[in-house]
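Just scan my protein:

——
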Amino acid sequence: EQWVGQRVVFDLRNVLYRHLQSQSMSFYDANQTGQLMSRVTNDVSQVQFFLTQGITRLINTVVTLALSISVLFALDVTLSLVALSVVPLIWWLQRHLSQVAPLFRAVQQRMADLNVVIQENVAGIKLIQAYGREPYEARRFEEVNRDIRLKRLEIGRLLGFIMPGQEFATNISLTLILIVGALRVMRGDLSLGTLVAFQSYAMMMWMPVRWIGMVTQMAQQAMAAGERIFEILDTPLEVQEKPDAIVLPPLRGEIVFENVSFAYRKERPLLRNISFTVRPGETVALVGPSGSGKSTIVNLIPRFYDVTEGRVLIDGYDVREVSLASLRSQIGMVLQETFLFNTTVKENIRYGRAEATDEEVIEAAKAACAHEFIMQLPQGYDTVIGERGVRLSGGQRQRIAIARALLVNPRILILDEATSSVDTRTDYLIQQALDRLMRGRTTVVIAHRLSTVQRADQILVLQDGQIVARGTHQELLRTCPLYQYLYEVQFRLQRDGAVSEERSPTPVTPNGRPGTDGVGGAAWTVAHAAGRLVERTRPEG
């Protein structure tokens, strides 16, 4: 039983994990990390406990009951009926166990909520301590923990009524056997030896009955956990690879969006009728305010989501018709939030191409202007950099991410330029590394740098999920007053390296409403927010 139980749980955990890996980004947008971790760990452990312990006891209970009852009826039918006269009482008590099932489900859910609180607190501990929110987070934790305790106490109260009740019923049965058996012995209808043997087998019969409550409790917990597990397994995959999916040949790098619209599930559209073409080797810059659809566009290229309407074509292939592995293996991504694993520098750079040699890793690091600082680390390329690369600076993490992309050598590059401030030398090194990375590749970049939009072959200005202007930098400066104004805002910010305290009139978008569309969208928002903060905190006089 142990082998079978462990094997089933092993397979269940693997199937659950693979199913989670296959889900699209929209699934993770809708689910909390701590909740998902709880399904894979706590819930599977509850199922494991029942399969390895509960089923064994259940089998023993059934076999022992069947054999004991058979022997009892063979010894004396009348005493057997007396012994089983308390079965209705035991059945009535067992029915009350149904009240425990919802409580077990609630406990499993609250345990998942507790995981969420822990995960968020560990991930955001710097922010929590910076704002002195430890007492608030402690109260959040205690609230969930208290709820778990109260629900477990309620379970204990119900089981405290049922378990002693079953014990009481079995004792009544044994007492009735002694009374009826003694009377029959005195009348000469039953031998003393038969009565003693019958009493022994009756005790053997009722012993597993006492286990039934425990087995039922374990089964209820396992069922509650199983329901939560199968909620995940029954979730359909929104991005599915077709059985006859085409394996992409080496790409030239052409990207075409044909009348693409996109919405998360049934929410309002985030993209509406987007059409553009990027020829092989070209760079297209996406600019616009937060929420305008820039990130959504780049997430559709590697098919992290499926379009609601229209098509995304790579070298003429609809991304829904090709295998995900052959598509994503030829796309490199360097994002603002650089994710690094808690392993060595070498393994982080090699992550996208596991078969790469040490020499290739070093060459990629040199091209990314990362070799110098890596060699200054305690163990060089074998230095473990901590969870999410916490032992490195922001600029160092970015350069490792660039080295990782260079090693993959993708035909298509998706780049979300970092907006975080770094020193002048680091900024220069990062820009050099990005220049090498973009050279000769089709690049779609969410632009925050003046130099990027100046050199882009095409600029798409986005607002409210639509392209409101397009062209080269010089064309937009001549034809788009909004772009010209925002360019000046961005240029002033990057030239001075600081936010101007002077108020400027709000730019007017093409639809006549105030907005922050264009090259300086993010910069404009930051400028005004910082300006207000400076004014509110400036000492009087």
